[in-house]
Design a protein that fits this description.
Blueprint lengths: L22 H15 L6 E5 L6 H14 L3 E6 L7 H15 L4 H16 L30 H18 L4 E6 L6 H17 L3 E7 L3 H8 L3 H4 E5 L5 H14 L6 H11 L3 H14 L7 H25 L3 H16 L11 E2 H8 L7 H9 L3 E2 L5 E4 L4 H8 L1
Helix pairs in contact: 1-2, 3-4, 3-5, 4-5, 5-6, 10-11, 10-12, 11-12, 13-14, 13-16
């Protein structure tokens, strides 16, 4: 097969040639955009799921829908080592510019509020050179969004930005990836701000994406968060959508998969979008001609698995310390011991079973488990249980141990 025409492209957040299986979320979001722009009440949105299910891709697709609706949008990726002020200031700066409000004085005022909010990241007596600036020419507005209390300041900031959007009958969307990595105080402030904005009826929405435990992070911050957000679990693709993700791009390049090849591809990928792209890319490279057969998939599978072992699984495993790797391997072994009748849909295991594998007390393993939780390699779907954030990670660890 011609490698230049290979349509499959595995990558972090890279949109596949066929965004299959996400029509429901896209259609719902279009309705949300129109309702908010018309002053109707709507909740902000949270997308959750494992690594590799396409959360970032969908987040970007939702943002594109907002851009097409002529909304102002901004996006950032949360990081454990960074507080909220700087990234959300940059995102709002971009959103205000996209709005294109005709009244320059009103725009400058909001930009000044954004600047004041951002600069409050530094201590009040900090020197000018130590104050970060988001590249805004307008002077900072004193006495607005600069109190130093992130909850108060964020409410004022989003209120002013929302008022600017309301003038034009549009909205502002802030898109946050890896939302579970926000600092706890920032999570609380963001929830409070969304609550206030919703009550005020201003056209501002937050769309977040994160790992499966993100709802628990939000709930621990504000008890009303379960009513504040519309939660959408992003999972692996059903069979029909997975076939479309493979067959559609192939047909665009005058090629196709035989039914047996589609059966084999679903078996090895499990319907996970990243795996579909990864296996599809290698199968295309190694298949001699179209149509692609089940035999072609069998030949390509070892190389695809080797590529995933280095780039998808291995890179994450290398982030763990020796003690954390021991915990990960014990999780994989504990999961492998479970009979099918006792396995849940996320492949979680009891922390006590992990301790049994290692012959240690569960309490002694808490530091390793907590460190893995912070690194986003595992998550707790319920008390006393733990699961991998990466699909097929347990299978990978059992194959290399």
């Amino acid at each position: 097969m011609d490698p230049i025409r290979n349509p499959y492209a595995p990558g972090a957040g890279q949109r596949p040639p066929e965004l299959a299986g996400r029509d429901e979320q896209l259609d719902q979001f279009k309705v949300v955009l129109q309702r908010i722009a018309r002053g109707r009440p709507e909740r902000s949105i949270v997308l959750t799921g494992l690594r590799g299910v396409g959360k970032t891709v969908l987040l970007n697709a939702l943002r594109s829908e907002a851009v097409r609706a002529k909304w102002g949008t901004g996006k950032f990726e949360a990081r454990p080592d960074q507080r909220l002020r700087r990234p959300i200031s940059s995102a709002l700066h971009q959103a205000v510019r996209e709005l294109g409000h005709p009244q320059s004085e009103d725009v400058d005022h909001v930009l000044g509020v954004i600047k004041a909010f951002a600069q409050r990241d530094a201590a009040p007596n900090a020197k000018l050179r130590d104050k970060w600036s988001p590249g805004i020419d307008a002077p900072a507005v004193s006495g607005r969004a600069d109190s130093g209390d992130i909850e108060i300041d964020l409410v004022e900031l989003l209120s002013d930005a929302g008022g600017l959007a309301a003038d034009m009958g549009r909205g502002i969307g802030i898109f946050i990836d890896e939302m579970q990595d926000l600092h706890p105080e920032d999570v609380s402030a963001l929830c409070a701000a969304c609550h206030e904005i919703s009550q005020s009826g201003l056209p501002v929405i937050v769309v977040g994406a994160g790992l499966p435990h993100l709802p628990a992070v939000l709930s621990a911050s504000k008890s009303y968060s379960e009513r504040l957000f519309r939660y959408a679990r992003i999972d692996r693709l059903p069979r029909e959508a997975a076939d479309r993700a493979l067959q559609g791009p192939a047909q665009d390049e005058d090629a196709e998969f035989e039914q047996g090849a589609l059966d084999a591809m679903y078996e090895v990928t499990g319907g996970y979008p990243y795996f579909i792209q990864a296996y599809g890319q290698v199968v295309w490279e190694l298949a001699p001609k179209s149509p692609i057969t089940a035999s072609d998939v069998a030949v390509a599978a070892p190389q695809a698995e080797a590529d995933l072992a280095v780039g998808f699984f291995g890179s994450r495993y290398e982030r763990a310390t020796p003690g954390e790797r021991e915990y990960l391997r014990a999780m994989a072994e504990a999961g492998g011991r479970l009979p099918d009748s006792e396995k849940d849909e996320v492949g979680s295991v009891l922390t006590s079973d992990v301790a049994d594998v290692l012959g240690r007390k569960p309490q002694s393993l808490s530091p390793a488990r907590d460190a893995l939780l912070k690194k986003g390699l595992v998550y707790s779907n319920e008390r006393g249980r733990v699961a991998f954030t990466v699909p097929h990670f347990g299978k990978y660890l059992r194959s290399v141990s």
